[in-house]
């Protein structure tokens, strides 16, 4: 199944849309659209899927995603009510050629870099307040405020690309459709046994051809990607539930505790117990 195409609604002929998304939990909805998307997490924790990358998010995280870059934010009820300030706009929302003007080249560069997705990490309180207020403003004030936000983000040398250089949004291509089908399938099945042959068959490829295809497209092996999904699931359980580590390992897809501990430390630099303790310290500070 490839990601669904979304057409964000606009009101009163506006050239972009800004809104608060609030739910008990964000469900997995793999999708893409022609608009850039600026998303600030204002409440709750969960997992963010962008192209090839799977990462945890928390309040204060800010990302800018380019057009047609598949993505979704997902969470569980035990991770807290989910809320985000979302603004979606097209490249010409200020008129054709606006970002080609010399004084706005730095913004054009920011938007070009967002084709791989950009994470700004935990931004300042002032920046969070500016982005969070966007949905609350009138149309004219909203437009100037969005331009102000983009100007503030543009020089940010700390903006981190989210997807690997080998992944480029290309709606309708065979590569994109196959990768999307695999990612959707693995999101739903990674906590159980994952057989290479079954995943290859999902996209009608031989195991050998699929291995080469997946590594070229994702920059990692299928095993590495599944371990990433499982460890992120474990992180959610470690920080959102009191389950013992043995149960966390089992629910994340690991049948061997030592293997779980090894994989977790490889990806997070901490043992599972240390990761949980560090989270508890942060929440009590």
Automatic annotation (TrEMBL):
Coiled coil regions, renumbered to chain: none
Pfam families, sorted: AraC_binding, HTH_18
InterPro entries linked: AraC-bd, Homeodomain-like_sf, HTH-like, HTH_AraC, RmlC-like_jellyroll, Tscrpt_reg_AraC-type_HTH
Record domain HTH araC/xylS-type: where: 180-278
Keywords noted in UniProt: DNA-binding, Transcription, Transcription regulation
Keyword Kinase among UniProt keywords: no
GO MF term list: DNA-binding transcription factor activity; sequence-specific DNA binding
Origin superkingdom: Bacteria
PANTHER family per UniProt: ARAC-FAMILY TRANSCRIPTIONAL REGULATOR (PTHR43280), TRANSCRIPTIONAL REGULATOR MTLR (PTHR43280:SF27)
Name of the featured protein: AraC family transcriptional regulator
Organism from which the protein derives: Actinacidiphila cocklensis
Lineage: Bacteria, Bacillati, Actinomycetota, Actinomycetes, Kitasatosporales
């Amino acid at each position: 199944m490839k990601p669904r195409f979304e057409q964000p609604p606009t009101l009163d002929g506006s050239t972009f849309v800004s809104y608060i998304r609030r739910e008990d939990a964000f469900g997995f909805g793999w999708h893409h659209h022609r608009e850039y998307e600026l998303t600030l997490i204002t409440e709750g924790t969960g997992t963010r899927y962008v192209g090839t990358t799977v990462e945890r998010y928390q309040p204060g995280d800010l990302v800018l995603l380019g057009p047609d870059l598949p993505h979704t934010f997902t969470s569980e009820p035990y991770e807290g009510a989910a809320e985000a300030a979302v603004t979606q706009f097209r490249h010409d929302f200020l008129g054709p050629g606006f970002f080609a003007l010399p004084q706005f080249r730095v913004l054009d560069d920011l938007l070009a870099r967002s084709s791989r997705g950009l994470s700004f990490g935990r931004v300042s309180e002032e920046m969070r307040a500016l982005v969070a207020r966007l949905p609350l403003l009138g149309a004219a004030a909203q437009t100037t405020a969005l331009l102000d936000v983009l100007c503030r983000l543009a020089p940010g040398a700390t903006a981190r690309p989210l997807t690997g250089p080998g992944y480029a949004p290309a709606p309708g291509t065979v590569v994109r459709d196959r990768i999307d089908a695999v990612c959707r399938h693995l999101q739903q099945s990674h906590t159980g046994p994952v057989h290479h042959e079954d995943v290859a068959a999902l996209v009608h490829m031989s195991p050998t051809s699929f291995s080469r295809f997946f590594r070229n497209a994702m920059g990692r092996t299928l095993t590495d990607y599944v371990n990433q999904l499982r460890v992120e699931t474990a992180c959610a359980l470690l920080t959102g539930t009191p389950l013992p580590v043995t149960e966390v390992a089992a629910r994340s897809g690991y049948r061997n505790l030592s293997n779980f501990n090894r994989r977790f430390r490889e990806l997070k630099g901490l043992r599972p117990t240390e990761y949980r303790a560090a989270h508890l310290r942060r929440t009590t500070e």
